């Protein structure tokens, strides 16, 4: 009986670790789609990904979904979305906190809070972006 319990526990841990990795990969892929669409100035992905009640904090202040969508403009030709250092932490199976940075002309650090809604869709419910400060030597 003890061996059976250990085997079942081990299988559950392996399954849970695999599910978390898949969710992490999915959330990173969503962020990359959002960032790439932002470079193009195309609000399609943001419209689907941002919760109607999202709270966004940037150097320009606090705003909601409409403010985020209104500010989407194409970046200069040749601009690429270059995310770095993703970290995803699950508060529970339906809530994740993502952080990452970006490189390039408009380098920044981001923090997103995501919620898995009914039907399994992930939505961003809070986001904050801070310009990266380049320290001069």
The oligomerization state is single chain
Q: Supply the number of helical segments.
A: 3
Quickly give the structural class: alpha+beta
Strand order of the largest sheet: 2-1-6-5-4-3
- Report the CATH topology name: Nuclear Transport Factor 2, Chain: A
Give an overview of the whole structure.
This protein has a six-stranded mixed β-sheet. It starts with a helix and ends in a 6-residue tail after the last strand. It has helices at about 1-40, 45-50, 65-70, and strands spanning about 50-60, 60-65, 80-90, 95-105, 110-115, 120-130. Residues about 5-20 have low confidence and may be disordered. Strand 5 (about 110-115) and strand 6 form a beta hairpin. It has one domain: Nuclear Transport Factor 2, Chain: A, CATH 3.10.450. It has about 140 residues and is α+β, with helices and mostly antiparallel strands. It is about 35% helix and about 35% strand.
Keywords:
3 helices; 6-stranded mixed β-sheet; 6 strands; Nuclear Transport Factor 2, Chain: A; single chain; globular; alpha+beta; 137 residues
Summarize the structure.
The protein is α+β, with helices and mostly antiparallel strands and 137 residues long. The protein has a single domain (2-131), classed as Nuclear Transport Factor 2, Chain: A, CATH 3.10.450.
What layout of secondary structure does this protein have?
Elements: H1 2-40, H2 44-49, E1 50-58, E2 61-63, H3 65-70, E3 82-92, E4 95-103, E5 108-116, E6 122-131
Parallel strand pairs: 1-6
Antiparallel strand pairs: 1-2, 3-4, 4-5, 5-6
């Amino acid at each position: 009986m003890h061996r059976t319990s250990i085997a079942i526990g081990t299988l559950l841990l392996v399954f849970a670790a695999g599910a978390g990795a898949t969710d992490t990969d999915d959330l990173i892929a969503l962020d990359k789609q959002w960032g790439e669409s932002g470079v193009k100035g195309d609000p399609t992905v943001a419209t689907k990904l941002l919760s109607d009640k999202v709270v966004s904090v940037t150097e320009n202040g606090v705003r909601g979904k409409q403010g985020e969508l209104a500010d989407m403009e194409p970046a200069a030709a040749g601009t690429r979305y270059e995310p770095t250092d993703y970290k995803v932490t699950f508060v529970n199976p339906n809530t994740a906190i993502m952080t990452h940075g970006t490189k390039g002309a408009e380098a920044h650090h981001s923090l997103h809070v995501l919620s898995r809604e009914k039907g399994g869709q992930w939505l961003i419910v809070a986001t904050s972006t801070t310009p990266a400060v380049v320290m001069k030597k």
